[in-house]
From TrEMBL:
InterPro entries reported for this sequence: Kinesin-like_fam (IPR027640), Kinesin_motor_CS (IPR019821), Kinesin_motor_dom (IPR001752), Kinesin_motor_dom_sf (IPR036961), P-loop_NTPase (IPR027417)
Name of the protein this chain belongs to: Kinesin-like protein
Ranges where the record places region Disordered: 1-146
MF-aspect GO terms: ATP binding; hydrolase activity; microtubule binding; microtubule motor activity
Domain Kinesin motor: 318-670
Key word Hydrolase present: yes
A Pfam family annotated for this UniProt entry: Kinesin
Gene3D superfamilies, per database record: Kinesin motor domain
Length: 680
């Protein structure tokens, strides 16, 4: 805006002139007022000037007529008022020109301020009426009818009029000068305005351009602000992340310093331990030698243990006999069957059983007989399976040491043989077979730490009417019974095998249990087909255990035979079958059973005699029955044999119980030599 000139600035010359004019007017005003009034200050209208001049030439005081100035037709001076400021508009300028400015030709004749006084008479003579001449005439000669006072008064007024005329001329000259000055100023102002308009239009164009630029800048600014806000948000996120990272870093630094101090501590410990390591190494070598020595010692202890265990078993007798009386079962209780009179004296060692029976004499008197029996252990009606196995477990352990072991269950039908050997499904009711199998697998696992590894094989057969059936065969029991099975002995290894019999390699006790249940289901099928065949047959479950010691190279071969014998009742007791066909079959069965059981007794008796005579070549009739021939190596002096005599609690079975007790006593009194370990 500095380029815009100030509207009120004007060239110095005209301004100075105008100022001079104003100053002159300011100086002239009091004089003019004073000149127009009387000496005592009264206004001129109170004077009788017009009245006085009515009679003379008409010369009125000049009255301002705006449109008559400068047109040359009116010579009256302009009123004694200050000239107006010229307007800036062209209309105003034109009016100013038309009223107060002289004609355009006037500037050529316009005198300067200094020449005004010298040229005034000439100007008056050309453009104004000859006022001065008539005035002089009045001054020089007043009317003759006036008094002296009035004449003097007239002269004074005339003088005043003259003075006023003179002043009027001066004022007109000043007005003219002012008009010229105003005209110049107006032209200059117009030029300035045009220049200003041009400048304004240029400035407006600039302004529009600047506004456009401003809008663009504002848009840029808005975008930049948006960017800035986004950057601020990002910055805030980064700041919070940074503060979290800083916190984590502080924690990590603390951990690092802790770890470094620990590392320093460990390094010092390691250096300490390194120095003691050589000492420890020396100790370790010594301890290793000590360990070898201890291991050898342990193996020696194991050998001693086995020897001592065997000695204990020998002291107990190679054929041992337990007697067990079963409790009454539900149907017997319901039928209120009478119990036999059995007592168990000697509660400390549990080895005795006393049966009392009453018979009527020929004279009709009642005769009471008591029968005392003594065995290795006697178990009364309340005994449990685990109590029986506590005595049997040592035998099961012997077979892993390389001995042949044979456990018989002997007794009449229904006396509890199967219950004792196989037991019931509940864990507490499990019999000797599952418990012995468990023990064998446990022992082989424990002996593995002493260098022993074992191969265990199993077979399960049945002897019915002197023929062998395979209870583990995949074919049905009838076709299996038709297959001929021969018994073979190997005198070198003292092992027995049966031709055509299924032999399973066993790896766990659970596998054995599934085999036993398979065999039982086959026996039940056979029982349906063949009339209580299970009670009339011998079943033999055999585990063969072959051990090898990887450290000592020692080998051992043992076997465990678990035998559930057929019912031992006599012919008279089993003759209750009415049908001829069934009776013949039962007679045949009974004969077969009695033959095998009496053969068993004969073998045991012969073994006893052999032991007593000291003749190793004495004959033992093993071949008299399939059962004794099969169990040859388990009954000989090289084996350990246990007979569990099962007894019925019923009074009705007392006679059979006494027969069984007498047979068991015979066995119990037999010494069959010293068991021999089958090792190489
Ligand atoms: N100690 C016992 N506790 C409970 N019940 C028993 C016991 N002993 C045998 N029993 C039950 O007596 C009944 C006959 O037992 P078991 O079948 O074992 O006799 P067994 O001598 O094997 O007969 P068989 O010669 O006919 O096979 C079965 O019902 C059996 O559950």
């Amino acid at each position: 805006m500095s380029a815009i000139p100030r509207l009120h600035s004007s060239p110095p010359q005209p301004s100075k002139k105008r100022k001079n004019v104003s100053d002159d007017e300011a100086e002239d005003k009091p004089r003019k007022i004073a000149a127009l009034g009387t000496s005592d200050g009264k206004p001129l209208r109170n004077l009788g000037v017009n009245k006085a001049t009515t009679s003379g030439p008409k010369r009125a005081l000049p009255v301002a007529k705006p449109n008559s100035v400068g047109n040359g037709t009116n010579n009256f001076p302009k009123p004694l008022t200050r000239p107006k400021e010229p307007l800036l508009t062209s209309g105003a300028r034109s009016r100013t020109r038309g009223t107060s400015a002289p004609p355009t030709s006037a500037p050529a004749a316009r005198p300067s301020a200094t020449t005004t006084t010298t040229t005034r008479p000439a100007t008056r003579s050309t453009s104004r009426p000859p006022v001065t001449g008539s005035s002089r005439g009045l001054v020089s000669k007043p009317p003759g009818n006036l008094s002296t006072i009035d004449e003097r008064r007239f002269l004074e007024l005339q003088h005043q009029v003259t003075t006023l005329h003179s002043q009027h001329q001066d004022l007109c000259s000043q007005v003219h000068t002012s008009t010229l000055t105003t005209q110049a100023t107006s032209d200059e102002l117009a030029a300035t305005q045009r220049r200003h308009r041009k400048e304004i239009s240029e400035l407006e164009a600039d302004l529009r351009k600047k506004e456009r630029e401003s809008r663009e800048l504002a848009e840029d600014l808005r975008l930049a602000r948006d960017d800035l806000n986004r950057e601020r948000e990002t910055n805030g996120v980064l700041k919070s992340t940074l503060s979290q990272q800083s916190t984590t870093q502080v924690a990590l630094n603390a951990q690092i310093s802790t770890l470094q101090s620990q590392i320093t501590m460990y390094q010092s410990q390691i250096s300490d331990q390194t120095s003691s390591l050589s000492g420890l190494r020396y100790d370790a070598e010594h301890q290793e030698a000590e360990l070898v020595r201890l291991r050898e010692e342990a193996e020696e202890h194991e050998r001693i243990r086995r020897r001592l265990h065997n000695m204990v078993m020998e002291l107990k007798g190679n054929i041992r006999v337990f007697a067990r009386v079963r409790p009454l079962i539900a149907n017997e209780i319901a039928a209120e069957e009478a119990e036999a009179n059995m007592t168990f004296p000697g509660s400390l060692d549990n080895t005795d059983i006393v049966l009392s029976s009453s018979t009527a004499s020929a004279m009709g008197n009642e005769r009471i007989e008591t029968h005392n029996f003594s065995f290795d252990r006697v178990f009364d009606r309340s005994s449990t399976q685990s109590e029986i196995f506590a005595e049997v477990s040592q035998l099961a352990q012997s077979c892993t040491d390389g001995y042949n072991v044979c456990i018989f269950a002997y007794g009449q039908t229904g006396s509890g043989k199967s219950w004792t050997m196989e037991g019931g499904p509940a864990p507490d009711d499990r019999g000797m077979i599952p418990r012995a199998v468990d023990q064998v697998f446990r022992d082989t696992e424990q002996l593995a730490s002493k260098g022993w590894s074992y191969v265990i094989e199993g077979q399960f057969l049945e002897i019915y009417n002197e023929s062998i059936s395979d209870l583990l065969s995949s074919s049905n029991i009838a076709s299996s019974s038709a297959t001929k099975h021969d018994i073979k002995h190997d005198p070198k290894t003292h092992s027995t095998s049966v031709t055509g019999l299924t032999v399973q390699t066993l790896t766990s006790a659970s596998q054995v249990f599934s085999l036993l249940s398979l065999a039982n289901s086959r026996r039940k099928t056979a029982a349906t087909m063949m009339n209580e065949r299970s009670s009339r047959s011998h079943s033999v479950f055999t585990l063969r255990i072959i051990g090898t010691n990887s450290r000592t190279g020692e080998q051992c071969r043992g076997s465990l035979n678990l035998v559930d014998l057929a019912g031992s009742e006599r012919m008279s007791a089993s003759s209750g079958v009415k049908a001829t066909e069934g009776r013949d079959e039962r007679v045949k069965e009974t004969k077969s059973i009695n033959k095998s059981l009496s053969s068993l007794g004969d073998v045991i008796a012969a073994l006893g005699e052999k032991g007593n005579s000291g003749n190793p070549d004495a004959h033992v009739p093993y071949r008299n029955s399939k059962l004794t021939y099969l169990l040859q190596y388990s009954l000989s002096g090289n084996s350990k044999t246990l007979m569990i005599l099962n007894l019925s609690p019923l009074a009705a079975h007392l006679s059979e119980s006494l027969t069984s007790l007498r047979f068991a006593t015979k066995v119990n009194n037999t010494t069959i030599g010293t068991a021999k370990k089958q090792t190489r």
